[in-house]
Specification:
The protein is mainly α. It is built from seven helices and no strands.
């Protein structure tokens, strides 16, 4: 996984309302376009998780928790009431424990 690339996409969506609007209009197209214009490929699992706003999968892959939450709030609220999103987020991530979020490979 390219944690940098996934985190960069989440950050862009959280901080840039024009990017978020394009994502909301067509998440699959947005992810494909992002990869082409930034020349940073994602694995199929990464692209699927960003496209589906699958925060549990992103968390399990090691995306940064603060960026995931910002992305979730931006992408999923108001479609989901914030208290419901908080409850679902906690329930989905609690069994996953605390992920490794370093940006350098862990060896041995």
């Amino acid at each position: 996984m390219s944690r940098y690339t996934v985190n960069r996409i989440l950050r862009d969506l959280y901080l840039n309302s024009a990017e978020l609007d394009r994502y909301r209009a067509d998440p699959d197209r947005y992810v494909q376009h992002w990869q082409l214009t930034h020349q940073r490929p994602l694995t199929e699992a990464e692209a699927d998780a960003v496209t589906a706003a699958d925060y549990a999968a992103l968390y399990a892959m090691g995306a940064h928790p603060y960026l995931i939450w910002g992305f979730c709030e931006a992408a999923l609220v108001p479609g989901i009431a914030r208290p419901d999103l908080v409850a679902a987020y906690r329930a989905a991530l609690l069994p996953l424990g605390y992920p490794e979020v370093s940006t350098t490979p862990v060896t041995g």
